[in-house]
Structure formats: C-alpha cells, structure tokens
Amino acid sequence: MTGPASQPAGQRDGRLLLKLQQEMSAMTEARTQDMCLENIAQNAPYLKQGRTLRDLHELGLGAGDSGVVIAAGPSLRRRDPVPVLKQSGFNGAIVCTESAISHCLRQGLIPTVAVSVDPHPLRIVRWFGDPDLDQARMKADDYFRRQEQDPSFADEVTKNNELLAMMAEHGKDIRIALGTTASPDVVKRVHEIGMQVFWFNPMLDDPDTPGSVTMELHRQNGLPCMNAGGNVGGACWMVAHAVLDKSRVAVTGMDFGYYADTPLLNTQYYYEARDLVGGDESRISELYIDIYNPHTDEWYYTDPAYYWYRSAFIEMAADADCRTYNCSGGGTLFSDHVQWASLEEFLDGATT
Amino acid sequence: EMEAKKRLGGSIAFVSKKKVMWD
Asked: Residue B4 belongs to what H/E stretch?
C-alpha cells in the first residue's frame, strides 16, 4: 500500500515483510505454542478458581449497544481517549489491554474488563506491577525502556512502584478475561492483586480440525475457547463484540504500527528484525513498510508482526456482525469494514 | 532460518473465521 508519490515518506516497501506474511501463522506457532502449553499446565491449579468467559458473557456488562476498546499503541498517548470517555459519561463497555490498565487508572477510569493472553514469561507481568523487579530483570530486557524512549532504569523503577500502588488500591475492582496461556507469574500476580478472573483458552489452532490442540485443551479443562486475533488488541475487540455482545465497537490506541518520527530502535521487534537479516543494517528496512493514512494525511510504518495483526483484525471486522470504528486518531488500521471516526462521533451514536 | 523468523512471530495465534467456542 502506498500513498501519493509526492509524499516525502513512503520509501520502505516491506519487501521482506510481505514475503514473511504467508509464514506468520507458522512463525507464531513456533514462537508461542510450546510456551502456551507449558503455561496452561502450570496454571492448572488456578483454573478451578475464578469464573469463566461464559460467566462474563452472562453478566451482561456495559449499558447499551456500544463498547470501546483501549489498547496501548502510540496513539493512546498522542490522542488520548480517556478524557473524552470520562467527559462524555459513557456507560457502555470499556475493554482494555493489560498494557493500558495503568493509563486508565492514572486518570481514574476503571475498565469494565481487562484482557491478557500473551504467554511471554517476563514482559507481561510488568503491566501489573512486578514485585520482583530488580536490576537483573531490567538489564535482561530493555523492551520497556525502548517503548518509553527513556533509557533510565530509575524511571522504570518509579513507574513500577506507581503501578504496585495503583494495583493495591484498585486491583480488586478490575475484572480480567485471562487466557490460560498467560505466564504463571502473571497468573500469580493477578491473584495477589485480587482481580476478578474470568478464564478462557485462547484458540491455538482451528478447533474443527482433526487433532486440534485447542479442542484437546477444551476437553481437558472445559473452558470456553476464544479466537484472540493474534494479539491482545484483537482479543479485546473479540471480547467486546462476541462476549459482551456489543453491536458497535470502537477501538482506540490501536495503531498496529508506529508514527513516522519513531526511531527503528524504539519499535517492538527491532532486535528480532536486525537478527533476521544477520545484523545487516542496510537490509533492516526491508522488514518495515510505510503506510499512508488518507484519513489523517500522515505516514506511519509497521513491522511484520503488527502488519499481520492488522490483516487479522481487518478480516475479523469484515466477518463480524457488528460495526467497527477506529477512533484511535492515528495509525495504520483502516479498511472498508473499519470505519474511521472521532471518538466523539462514535459516542454520539451510542444508545444507552 | 525458522529460529530467527519465529522471534518475529505474533503474540498468540489467529484462527481465521472463528469467534468463541462456548459449549
């Protein structure tokens, strides 16, 4: 996808990125499936505690026909939806990624439900405040410093302490749709906090396929299985649409990419991309693609994983019997089935 | 190559045409 030739950006055509797209499902399975199965086995003692996704469905949460997803992409800060939501008095469903919980709590907004599915052993627990955070853990993974574009350990410690305090105060008020695939550290932490847990199995493959891993898990633990859509943002949309039964769903903070002024180093998969091309700096750009957003008249760019999430989301939105709006105000997500709108416009059309 | 590629894989699976399997 390219924009007008006169645009100054748009040089990266994603030659390698596009080549990898047909392998992304296999790459994701290779990266995550063993981790998921190991986590599910270790989480078994907790699965009898808490409720299930069906219980969440039966609570009928959020007034009216509308839900708003809050994800933690770059637009969450640049075009913050929380003040608009608070000012409007919106009383529909608010579904947020675990990575956006702190952003909501900091502004006094408690989401209807949070969602977590990623099996990563270290990163995800940080969004809940990591009581075991130390120099070694921070040194082992500079992901957060790169995302924050702040290189200091001190800032990480301050943020972690703030999270620990917020979770201690508000954690018990938060419902969480928790994938059985979450890391044992996340599961332990969520229970320490006292969050209200609603379990489900993220689908690891097509349950209708003979020998399906998902179907076997379902037989073993009896939990509902949900298509998580590739990442937690897609999973939030699925919860709003298919679990909370909202017929209008807006997404915010859902960029599936980066603003044009973001350095490559600050992208989520930079090191992985660099390693795939053998450290050849001149080839790294082949793993990124520039995308022109006609709604904002701005350029963005994305990487193989986020391009895949974007494609998955567009497919899910096209298949769904709900209307999907992108109220992020920026990013790469737009299509015939994802209507671009301001959050104010979306909220004006909500029934209560 | 797959060892290098898989590090660029997604967070969790995406299953085309599926929503929720309740029962």
From this structure: helix B2-6
Cross-strand pairs, A290: A301
The nearest alpha carbon in chain A to B23 belongs to A224
Are residues A29 and B13, on separate chains, in Cβ contact within 8 Å? yes
Give the one of B6, B17, B18 whose C-beta lies nearest to A31's C-beta: B6
Give the model's confidence band at A85: pLDDT under 50 very low, under 70 low, under 90 confident, else very high: very high
Distance (Å) from the C-alpha of residue B12 to the closest C-alpha of chain A?
Answer: 5
Q: State residue A237 phi and psi, 5-degree precision.
A: -60, -40
Chain A residues in contact with B7 (beta carbon < 8 A): 31, 269, 272, 275-276
CA distances from A340 to A7, A67, A93, A329 (A): 21, 16, 20, 8
Which of B10, B18, B21 is nearest residue A308 as measured by Cβ atoms? B10
CA separation for the pair A132, A302 (Å, rounded): 33
Cβ <8 Å between A28 and B10:
yes
**Residue spans of alpha helices (H) in chain A:** 15-21, 24-47, 53-58, 75-78, 82-88, 101-106, 135-140, 143-148, 153-170, 184-193, 213-221, 232-238, 270-276, 281-284, 304-319, 343-348
pLDDT for the residue A38: 87
Look at phi and psi of residue A129 and say left if phi exceeds 0, alpha if psi is from -120 to 50, else beta.
left
The residue written with tokens 């898989």 in the block is: B6
3 state SS of A324: strand
* pLDDT bracket for residue A2 (50, 70, 90): very low
What are the sequence ranges of the domains in chain A?
Answer: 15-348
Segment A165-195, tens digit of pLDDT: 999 999 989 999 999 999 999 999 999 999 9
Residue A181's closest CA among A50, A27, A32? A32
State the smallest CA–CA distance between residue A6 and chain B in angstroms.
32
Torsion of CA A300, A301, A304, A305, to 10 degrees: -40
Q: Do A20 and B5 touch (CB under 8 A)?
A: yes
Residue pair B19/A242 in contact by the 8 Å Cβ criterion: yes
